[in-house]
Design goal:
Elements lengths: L3 E4 L8 H15 L6 H4 L7 H9 L6 H20 L10 H10 L3 E5 L5 H8 L7 E3 L12 H10 L6 E5 L2 H9 L3 E5 L2 H4 L4 E3 L7 H12 L1
Parallel strand pairs: 1-2, 1-4, 2-3, 4-5, 5-6
The chain binds 6-O-phosphono-alpha-D-glucopyranose and magnesium ion.
Organism: Chroogloeocystis siderophila 5.2 s.c.1
Protein name: Beta-phosphoglucomutase
Family: Belongs to the HAD-like hydrolase superfamily. CbbY/CbbZ/Gph/YieH family.
Length: about 220
């Protein structure tokens, strides 16, 4: 009885997860803090502040220095997204969104990012979505369920009628905590707790997703 689809943005609809990583890497290099792709795994889907605190570790910085570093990382990130266009939608995304609309499934984007609306506009998918929940919508970040509950509320749907698409462990946890169905995009080491795991959206249809979720039920 699914009537709503809630999509994470970074790493699900587009590869901005890579831009977040590169922006943090540049900041970490400048500060001579140890950081690499492996360490970045722990940052996937979590808030800007929590990400910085993980990179900083036990090195001491003042509150003002932490603020400055968050702003600096955000500037680097915004440089990356400046040149984004609809061609940066990941394979299969536009056709899935279009199919969902045809099937009268409500669509929300729920991202912890304060840059989500900019990215959504660059991707030119604003007209395809019914609601947007972003880094300004709720206080508690994923893995708390709040952002997804906020999105479902915007869609006027109960949690059990919604399926969440996520690429981050924290996001799958948030979806499960919200009492929603979950589809993980990416490796099982990351999203293995989801009801269904897909490598990506290439050649994926809504009917295909429903049949996989049904297999889970039976
Ligand atoms: C998403 C991304 C995270 C990012 C967070 C905050 O959850 O997956 O990597 O840290 O948004 O994004 P922002 O653009 O507000 O720094
Ligand atoms: Mg993500």
């Amino acid at each position: 009885n699914l009537r709503g689809a809630i999509f994470d943005l970074d790493g699900v609809l587009t590869d901005t997860a890579e831009y977040h990583y590169r922006a943090w890497q540049r900041l970490a290099d400048e500060e001579e803090l140890p950081f690499d792709r492996q360490a970045n795994e722990a940052l996937r889907g979590i808030s800007r502040r929590e990400s910085l605190l993980k990179i900083v570790g036990d090195r001491t910085y003042s509150a003002a220095q932490l603020e400055e570093m968050m702003e600096r990382k955000n500037r680097y990130y915004q440089e990356f997204i400046e040149s984004m266009s609809p061609s940066d939608l990941l394979p299969g995304v536009r056709s899935l969104l279009t199919e969902l609309r045809q099937q009268q499934i409500k669509i929300a984007i729920a991202s912890a990012s304060k840059n989500a609306r900019t990215v959504i506009e660059k991707l030119n998918i604003t007209e395809l979505v019914d609601a947007i929940a972003d880094g300004y919508s709720v206080e508690r970040p994923k893995p708390a369920p709040d952002l997804f509950l906020y999105a479902a509320n915007q869609l006027k749907l109960p949690p059990a009628a919604c399926v969440v698409f996520e690429d981050a462990t924290a996001g799958i946890e948030a979806a499960l905590a919200a009492g929603m169905w979950s589809v993980g995009l990416g490796p099982v080491e990351r999203v293995g707790n989801a009801h269904v795991v897909l490598p990506n959206f290439a050649d994926i249809t809504w009917a295909g997703i429903l049949s996989k979720l049904n297999q889970h039920l039976s």
